[in-house]
Design goal:
heterodimer; A: Glutaredoxin; two-stranded parallel ribbon; two-stranded antiparallel ribbon; about 45% helix; globular; B: alpha+beta; 3 helices; extended
Chain lengths: ~170, ~70
Amino acid sequence: MLEPMAREYAPEGFAFLFVYTREAHPGENYGPHRSMEQKLAHARAFKERGRVGRPILVDDLVGTGHTQYGALPNMTYVIGRGGRVLFRSDWTDPPTLTFFLKYLLDVRARRRSGERLAGFYVECMGYRNVDQEKFQQGLEVAGQQAVEDFARTMQRWTSQGKIPSRMEG
Amino acid sequence: MTNQRDIEVYNYSVFEGQEDFTGFRSLLQIGVRAPDFPATLLETGETVKLSDYWRERDVVIEFGSHT
């Protein structure tokens, strides 16, 4: 969740947005969306529970925007002024994003001081906290079905020896 | 025209971990123009476009849901 970062980095010139997608872990309390009214209601509940100050943009019912960006449950993108993709991660991790935003601010400062810089391609591994407690609490908010569905999937991944969203390194 | 089946396929009712994390890596490259799409701004109900935001500033977008 990027609320604290949004407060810290908005004065530096970044606009922070939240795009509301399908329910990643539907349950009895928050089921899969079947209407825009329902999706908007869920987004409102999310805004209240998380005290979200960022603008929330609710994608359409079939996830048109979400799909174009990769359809993963919690991605982060940084789009440069003018519309180019500068950063993309398959999970949202504040320390990783902080690292990149600081880098970008430094690049801007160097350019302002007259240094000539050109873009080039970089890839890197990210590392995120995977303590399960907060995540499990989130599943409980969705409902018992969400808890059970996740436990079953986790069991399957464990027996297969691989959690798809994790990388070695 | 959006049909019911598309809605039910996208909004799955049971989590099975079918997201394509590997496919994500090559889907949208660094440096390309970001896809633009319309969305409903929760605060006002109006339709906005993502590009409205990156016209003047760098934009950090988090995708997610309540669950």
